[in-house]
Amino acid sequence: xxxxxxxxxxxxxxxxxxxxxxxxxxxxxxxxxxxxxxxxxxxxxxxxxxxxxxxxxxxxxxxxxxxxxxxxxxxxxxxxxxxxxxxxxxxxxxxxxxxxxxxxxxxxxxxxxxxxxxxxxxxxxxxxxxxxxxxxxxxxxxxxxxxxx
Length: 149
Description:
With about 150 residues, this protein is an alpha+beta fold. The protein has one domain: 3-Layer(aba) Sandwich (Aminopeptidase). About 30% of the residues lie in helices and about 30% in strands. The protein contains four helices and seven strands; from the N terminus they run βααβββαβαββ. It has a seven-stranded mixed beta sheet, sandwiched between helices. Strand 3 (about 60-70) and strand 4 form a beta hairpin. The longest helix is centred in the first third of the chain and has 13 residues, at about 10-25.
């Protein structure tokens, strides 16, 4: 499994995977239309690619997912904007492997932050399982962080 900067030639495939992945959220508490902003937008994903935030996940030369990652200006805090795995590859351990790769991708990171919708029982349990601690919540989201060594 590889986490690498996304390639423009893969953009439409990445967006198709994002669309399929986030549309499975109705199985874990979401409602139709309750998706991340621009989850299905090629233009937005191209902007993320051009800014260096879009990554692709490849297993045995097959594109299986993506990630949007933001490194703070001091390069000590990483914010995970989103991660997604093609639903045909769910429950195979790729999400766990992806998160470990994300945590080790940048050197010098001291903290990782992310948020996820309160209704999404799958992601809330997933991040807790990985050692992320909920630091706050509002009416819509739980906010997590993890301190790194």
